[in-house]
Amino acid sequence: MAGKRRYAHLSLKMTAADAPVTSPKPPLRVLLCSPRGFCAGVVRAIDSVERALALYGPPVYVRHEIVHNRYVVEGLRAKGAIFVEELDEIPDTDAPVIFSAHGVPRSVPEDAKRRNFLALDATCPLVTKVHREAEIHLRRGREILLIGHAGHPEVVGTMGQLPEGAVTLIETLADAEAFMPRNASQLAYVTQTTLSVDDTTEIVARLKARFPQIVGPHKEDICYATTNRQEAVKRVAPQVEAMIVVGAPNSSNSLRLKEVAERAGCARAALVQRADDIDWATFGNIKSLGITAGASAPEVLVEEIIDAFAERYAVNVETVSTAEEDVFFPLPRGLRENEAAE
Question: What is the spatial distance between Cα 128 and Cα 202, in angstroms, rounded to a whole number?
Fold first, then answer.
C-alpha cells in the first residue's frame, strides 16, 4: 500500500509540479462580422472566368482584374486567365474575352464586336442597373450627377455609357455644394455601388436641399452587400480595440469598411491583404479584435488571418450577424449550362 501511495504521490508531482511550465497565450476575443467577403456579383464574375476556362480551355482574356483581389487574380492567372487593361493588348483570337465585374464603357463591347471577339460580360447586375438608370435619365432630358470616386473602374464604366459631358461626377460634399445645374428642374443622380452609405446619404441630402426636384433611383444604388458589410462593422467596431478589414488597397468597398470602422470608434483599423501583411506592432498587444472582409476577399484569407492570431493568442471567435444574404446572379449568357450544351 505504501508503495502504491508513493507512486501516486510521485505521479501527482510529475504532472503538477515537475512538468515544464509554458507561458499561456494571452486571451483574444475575436468578433467576426457577418456578412463579410464575397457578394453575389463577385461570385458570378469569378465563376464566369472558371466556367469559360472549363468550356473553352486557356487562355481566357479578362479586361481589368475580374475583381479587386490579388489572391483571386493570381489563382485565375495560374489556371490560364490573361488579364489586360485594354482590348488592344489582346491579339486576334477565338478565345473568350471577359469584362470585369466593375463594368466597362460602351465603347469596349463595341470594339470587341468590331474585332469579332467572343465577348462575355461579367458586369455585376447591380452595376448594370445603374447604367440603365443613367440611360433612362438621358432619354428624359435630365442632366445627370454620378456620386462616386474619380478613376474607379465602375465610375469610368458608368460615365462611359453616355455621351461625353452628359454626366457630372460628384465626389464630395463640397462638390455637391458647388455644382451649378443647367436646369434645376431637370436633374437626376445615380451612385457608385460601393460607396460609404453615410457619406452618400450626406451628399444626397445636400443635393436634395439645393435641388428639391432632383430625381434619384427608385431603389438606392449602393448595393445590398456594401450596405450589409458596413452595418456589421458599425455593430462590431465600438466593441473592439482593433479592426482588420481583409481586402485589397484598390478595392473601394474594402477601403470604405476601414473608414466605417474608424468612424464607429475603432482607432486601430487596418486594411490587410494576407496574414503576412499584419503589423504586429499595431496588433500585438490587444484583448479584442474585429475582423471583416471586403466583397472581393475570399474566406480562405479570413481563416488565414485568424490562424495567424491563434499562433500568438488563445483565440475565442464569436460571429456578429446583422443580415442574412441569399442573393444569386446567373452566369452571363453563353456560359450557362443549358446554353453551352446547345
Answer: 24
